[in-house]
Write a structure and sequence with these properties.
Layout: E1 11-12, H1 14-22, E2 26-29, H2 32-37, H3 42-56, E3 60-67, E4 70-73, H4 77-85, E5 90-92, H5 97-103, E6 107-109, H6 111-121, E7 125-127, H7 138-141, H8 146-151, E8 157-160, H9 169-179, E9 182-186, E10 206-207, H10 210-223, E11 230-233, H11 244-261, H12 268-279, H13 283-314
Parallel strand pairs: 1-4, 2-3, 2-7, 5-6, 7-8, 8-11, 9-10, 9-11
Antiparallel strand pairs: 3-4, 3-6
Bound molecules: pseudouridine-5'-monophosphate and manganese (II) ion.
Manganese (II) ion is lined by residues 143, 145.
GO molecular function, one term: hydrolase activity, acting on glycosyl bonds
Binding site for substrate: 91, 111, 145-147
Protein name: Pseudouridine-5'-phosphate glycosidase
């Protein structure tokens, strides 16, 4: 046969394998935010904290990365430490997975890489900070994150604080519509602004509790058709958002600095996030972390609601 069915081995941690077999809640977590999105040494503490938050929410964490060519679904302490400290790790989106597996490379997975591997492993719920999307200079650079296209063809629920505000947010929402990816506001009718509670852009759907989200997931499955994702947009609490004036000013400077330095491609998102952290005196980092924490907690709740709904259908 020219093209065998998917068989690349995924290495599941024992607890993830056990939970999936039992139908108990699992939440996928990405590793790019740890390896490339957060400063060291804070990133390792955050990686551990996010896993603890998943557990506190009654779910099993599955942090995803590719190590020595093997996709790992659930990392032990040593592997988490490697993700946080090894400066040579690649940034792996979906398209980078096959080259990484074939060459034995190691890398942290982005939203697109993580969502793909999570879905392959049978994990339905995924938490991150902010999705990638359409960059502000798209008309000349054509830079649109692979996150969007992958979510259009992957059945996963991703909990995020919107898309990173370094992006062209209205254009990204339009692309999600074009691609057929549903976006739900969690207790908000406004699309969140990543570091900011709101983006000023309206959403068509607002849900108020995890069980309702699980109902939408079930409806997606019952309708069938394209295996698209569900984006649950969960704003950072107003008390923990970045000061909007500081945000706008420093972001303007960051975009100018990226242009001046000629930063492009995969490097642009980490560059902008790091610039913001440095020039807000760490305030953007705190807002980013507050957003991620909230997303991880909500994802655990959604995974639990999903597990209960599925158990109810079986039983
Ligand atoms: N969310 C965060 N910090 C991050 C990211 C998300 O709070 O660093 C990462 C995700 O891995 C996302 C990636 O997929 O940024 C987008 O990168 P790009 O624009 O190169 O596709
Ligand atoms: Mn890009």
């Amino acid at each position: 046969m020219d093209r065998p069915s998917p068989s690349a081995p995924l290495r599941l941690s024992d607890e993830v394998a056990t939970a999936l077999a039992a139908g108990t809640p699992v939440v996928a977590l990405e590793s790019t935010i740890i390896a490339h999105g957060l400063p060291r040494p804070r990133n390792l503490a955050v990686a551990v904290e996010l896993e603890d938050l998943v557990r506190a929410g009654g779910a099993v964490p599955a942090t995803i990365a590719v190590l020595d060519g093997v996709p790992h679904i659930g990392l032990d302490k040593d592997a988490l430490e490697r993700i946080a400290t090894d400066g040579s790790l690649r940034k792996l989106g979906f398209r980078e997975l096959a080259p990484a597996v074939a060459t034995g490379a190691s890398g942290a997975t982005t939203v697109s890489g993580t969502a793909f591997l999570a879905a392959r492993a049978g994990i339905r719920v995924f938490a991150t900070g902010g999705l990638g999307g359409v960059h502000r200079d798209w008309t000349t650079s054509q830079d649109e994150s692979a996150d969007l296209g992958l979510l259009a063809r992957t059945r996963i629920t991703v909990v995020c604080a919107g898309v990173k505000s370094i992006l062209d947010v209205p254009a990204t929402l339009e692309r999600l519509e074009t691609l057929g990816v549903a976006v739900l506001g969690y207790r908000t009718a406004e699309f969140p602004g990543f570091y900011l509670t709101g983006s000023g852009l309206p959403l068509d759907w607002t849900l108020d509790d995890p069980a309702q989200v699980a109902e939408v997931m079930r409806a997606q499955d019952e309708l069938g058709g394209a295996e698209s994702a569900l984006v649950v947009a969960n704003p950072v609490p107003a008390a923990e958002q970045l000061d909007p004036e500081l945000h706008d000013r420093v972001l303007g400077e960051a975009l100018a600095a990226a242009r001046a330095a000629g930063v492009t491609g995969q490097a642009i998102t980490p560059f902008l996030l790091a610039h913001l952290t440095e020039h807000t005196g760490g305030a953007s980092l705190e807002a980013n972390l507050a957003a991620v924490r909230g997303n991880v907690r909500l994802a655990a709740g959604i995974a639990a609601a999903r597990a209960a709904e599925q158990a109810g259908r079986r039983g």
